[in-house]
Amino acid sequence: MGLRVPAWPVRYNTLALCVAGFAAFLALWAWQRDEWMAVTAAVFLVLSLVGVRDALQQRHAILRNYPVIGHMRFFFEYIRPEIRQYFIESDAEAAPFSRAQRSLVYQRAKMAPDNRPFGTQLDVSQHGYEWINHSMFPTTLPSSDFRITIGATTKQPYSASIFNISAMSFGSLSANAIMALNKGAKLGNFAHDTGEGSISQYHRVHGGDLIWEIGSGYFGCRDDQGRFSEERFVANATDPQVKMVEIKLSQGAKPGHGGILPAAKVTPEISRARGVPIAVDCVSPSSHSAFTTPLEMMQFIVRLRELSGGKPVGFKLCIGHPWEWFGIVKAMLETGVTPDFIVVDGAEGGTGAAPVEFSDHVGAPLQEGLLLVHNTLVGTGLRPRIRIGCAGKVISAFDIARMMALGADWCNAARGFMMALGCIQAQTCHTGHCPTGVTTQDAMRQRALFVPDKALRVYNFHHATLHALKDLVQAAGLEHPEEIGSQHIVRRISDWEVRLLSNLIMRVEPGSLLTGDLEHQHNVFQVYWPMARPDRFSAAAAR
Question: How far apart are CA 391 and CA 411, in angstroms?
Fold first, then answer.
């Protein structure tokens, strides 16, 4: 076999044309001695030098991947106030995040001032507009490093930040993106969820705290048949860098849907991280094989807690059939076993590979899912024993405050941290052609993502967001975000009426579900709580 020559990257064509143009016009000038030929050659020389500089610099991933022509993006970004109505607002509905949200992340990641002149840009008269009430006597807090303890009764409890990196796997993200996220987490002392793709060598480079997510494929802890392996689980779970273990029941963007990583994408690096054969289709089943009932799931949690040396163990889910969630809670009551934490994933959560119908129409949105989980635990008296995290388009300090008002103890974010890495929402994640090197395994493309610079931006975004949350907490006259309740949030429901969120959402009295009297409960409990069984999942609904 002959030596394989890598294909010329098409994105470098502009630079190549500039070099070719310089050579051509220089030759023409040498032949004809025309001054315009010399000027044109000089222009192409300047463009060529700019392109070489772009390809070598380490600050802007766009310019490293798209020399010369990449400057067009920054030009339009510079003049955007004048062309906003034509170039930005026109695609606002197509983009996952609004222009204001994207701008907020970029500013905080780059430590640029995020103060906004001329007041709010939101329509305060719009139905659904929300705000947090302030106090006449604000507090003064010493730090914005808000933390909670997860797994207080375990041998190795974890003191977690209330804002962490949500699950994104190596394979979905590039090696450089994983390293930048983890280094940012290390700098800011917050947690980095591995996603179900397990712990790669790139997660370990900088030593940032990890939450190890275990999905139905048991990547990183599976035997040759794809079943759960205790021996391989222990090898990863007892690593001091792993602070918590999270069982993934479902993902907000595609709940109830398995996945497949095509054989062509199963590289040696991914093979090592996931424990699967190289160049063979890597399948994530739609459900777990280590347990098939809520009762078995509780025993699996106990098993993982023991095998990990007493680290906090919990699970993540997007709420679907209510009776299945209620069956899990009834299993907790029957066995006395509780997870240390539950992460509620909203259906609005993102992924690079989900059918449109699943992204848009399957699973409960975060608000509804979080409320149901919180109220069920309150109604069964289990809430003090279990911490609740949440994820689903959480981006700003107000988003965090609002989720905590609905019952969350902490929040995770994925896209916000991706944008801090430099993601421009090109929506080419599934193609491998990410222009900023965030979601690609192409070595040349991901080279554009310079880890030290982007890690600092990840840290900056986290730090600035929690600083903004501190300002909100102080303005509300509180001492910690965990004190934020639904009585602090106000929503406009019509042109002439606003109400406290506490008067609009479902509320359950502590322990009230244990009495058996469901007559005064919300309809979801009246209908589905009796259907739930701790010894089965969906089969209970068929009775």
Answer: 6
Contacting residues for 314 by C-beta, under 8 A, at least 6 apart: 150, 244, 245, 246, 247, 301, 339, 340, 341, 342, 343, 386, 387
Give residue 366's region: left, alpha or beta (phi > 0; psi -120 to 50).
alpha
- Alpha carbons 462 and 420: distance in angstroms, whole number: 9
HEC assignment per residue over 360-426: HHCCCCHHHHHHHHHHHHHHCCCHHHCEEEEECCCCCHHHHHHHHHCCCCEEEECHHHHHHHCCCCC
Which tokens go with 377?
């635990």
In whole angstroms, what is the distance from residue 138 CA to residue 131 CA? Answer: 16
**Single pTM value for the model:** 0.84
Angle at 347 between CA 346 and CA 352, to 5 degrees: 110
Contacts of 48 (CB under 8 A, 6+ apart): 15, 18, 19, 22
356-377 confidence digits (pLDDT tens)? 777 677 778 999 999 999 999 9
Helix, strand and coil content of the chain, in percent to the nearest 5, comes to: 45, 10, 45
Name residue 210's beta-bridge partners: 192, 242
What amino acid occupies position 236? N
Report phi then psi at 367, rounded to 5.
-60, -50
Rounded distance, CA 122 to CA 172, Å?
34
User: Do 445 and 65 meet the contact criterion of CB atoms below 8 Å apart?
Assistant: yes
Sequential DSSP letters for 57-102: -SS-HHHHHSTTTTHHHHHHHHTHHHHHHHHTGGGTTTSSS-HHHH
Q: How confident is the model at residue 93 (pLDDT cuts 50, 70, 90)?
A: very low
What is the distance between the alpha carbons of residues 226 and 503, in angstroms, rounded to a whole number? 48
Which residues, listed in sequence order, are joined to residue 412 by a DSSP beta bridge?
A: 164, 391
pLDDT of residue 5: 44
CA-based nearest residue to 408, from 159, 150, 185: 150
What is the rounded distance in angstroms from the CA atom of residue 462 to the CA atom of residue 161? Answer: 10
Residue-level pLDDT at 256? 59
Distance from C-alpha of 300 to C-alpha of 306, rounded to nearest angstrom? 10
Give the domains, in start order, of the chain with CATH numbers: 162-391+398-409+479-528 (3.20.20.70)
**The one-letter amino acid at 222:** R
Write out the two tokens for 456.
Answer: 């600092």
Identity at 152, one-letter amino acid code: A
Return d(Cα 200, Cα 179) in angstroms, integer: 10
3-class secondary structure per residue, 266-293: CCHHHHHHHCCCCCCCEEECCCCCCCCC
**Host H or E run for residue 248:** strand 242-248
CA distance 450 to 455: 9
Cα separation, 290 vs 248, whole angstroms: 12
Residue 491's pLDDT band, with cuts at 50, 70 and 90, is: very high
β-strands 210-214, 242-248: how paired? parallel
